[in-house]
Amino acid sequence: MSTSQLAERAGAPGKVNLFFAAGPPRPDGYHDVASLYCAVSTGETVRATLTRGAGTTVGVAAVPGSLVAQQLDRGTFSLDTVPTDGSNLAVRAAEAVLARFPPLVGGLHLQIDKAVPVAGGMGGGSADAAAALAAVNRLAARVSGEPALDDDALLELAAGLGADVPFALTGGAAVGTGTGARLRPVAVGAPLHLVLVAAEAGLPTPAVYAELDRLRADEDVPPPRLPEGLVERLGAGTAEELAPLLANDLQSAALSLAPQLEPVLAAGADAGALASFVSGSGPTVAHLVADAAAAAALADVLRGQGAPALAVRAP
Ligand code: ATP
């Protein structure tokens, strides 16, 4: 087999935070959080190919029909905004894996198929990193004949790349504590139905945290914790029972920086959504609805109004 045929592909989901509480800023600048992560049925794929060159190259394409493809169609986004150098989280993930194997003879190409909006609060870059960890791990093991890294080793590398990367590697639903990287998987009784609405411009996560700290400067911020009954309702309750417990500390900060999200949230209430919330640090908005038919109908209406919208299951 020629080296150009050696390739491995892996996928990783985007996420929403059904609940997100952030504590006060720590001395190291990070925030302790209490997060209920839930994977969504739209996500990223990374194909890692061994090349005859040297170093790591990156290609990026949009998944047809995805939020990213809709943003491209509307001219509100360009794939050029995704870094293709060593600052791409997928490249950092690949390098972290390769460092654990004998040196590669040849180079690496990472082809990223993007579905998750960039800087959208859905952990797109983290999903690219998780998919790259899995794909490059399998490729490096095949090429070297060494055993692949086990799940624990990959999770450790993931935590070193970013707070959301471990969850992108595991998927499903999980409570995240510490910076979000310490995970406890939780059960989901029945998949939730969401409509995701992407914004025209991304929101950098550090700016949203800075705005949160500014808005709460005079408050005595308590340590973050999940509300009583939240995990139980996700495991055994209905979407109607879950809806009142959903909350996101970052939402007020995201709205302060991007007030144009107010009508996007209000559109959900007008359409009968059970809850509407900003995903993570935003600006993607998620509307929780009762079933798949309601999600498809709401996504159609919102797309008709010109917004990139997608009906998804979670997880
Ligand atoms: P999170 O919710 O995890 O905080 P996000 O989903 O809001 O993140 P990302 O799309 O992960 O945001 O990326 C944020 C920034 O990271 C981008 O603006 C870009 O400069 C940089 N970046 C690095 N690697 C990637 C990648 N693979 N895909 C997209 N952006 C990346």
What does this entry show, briefly?
Helices cover 34% and strands 28% of the residues. With 315 residues, the protein is an alpha+beta fold.
Would you kindly provide a written description of the structure presented here, covering whatever features stand out?
Helix content is 34%, strand content 28%. It is built from eleven helices and eleven strands. It has helices at 67-73, 89-98, 124-144, 151-161, 165-170, 205-215, 230-236, 239-242, 250-257, 261-270, 292-304; strands at residues 7-25, 31-51, 56-62, 107-114, 173-177, 182-185, 192-197, 247-248, 275-278, 285-289, 309-314. Strand 9 (275-278) and strand 10 form a beta hairpin. Helix 2 runs parallel beside helix 3 and helix 3 packs across helix 4 (151-161). The two termini are 38 Å apart. The model has no long low-confidence stretch (mean pLDDT 96). Bound molecules: adenosine-5'-triphosphate. The active site is at residues 15, 164. Belongs to the GHMP kinase family. IspE subfamily. It is an enzyme of class 2 (transferase). Keywords: ATP-binding, Isoprene biosynthesis, Kinase, Nucleotide-binding, Transferase.
Strand content: 25-35%
Order of helices and strands: EEEHHEHHHEEEHHHEHHEEHE
Could you name the CATH topology of the largest domain? Ribosomal Protein S5, domain 2
Low-pLDDT residue intervals, each spanning 5 or more residues: none
Count of helices? 11
CATH architecture of the largest domain: 2-Layer Sandwich
Helix content estimate: 25-40%
Largest sheet: 7 strands, mixed
Distance between the termini: 38 Å
E-strand count: 11
Average pLDDT level: 96
User: How large, in whole angstroms, is the Cα Rg?
Assistant: 19 Å
Top CATH class of the largest domain: Alpha Beta
What are the distinct ligands in this entry? Answer: adenosine-5'-triphosphate
Q: Helix/strand-derived class? A: alpha+beta
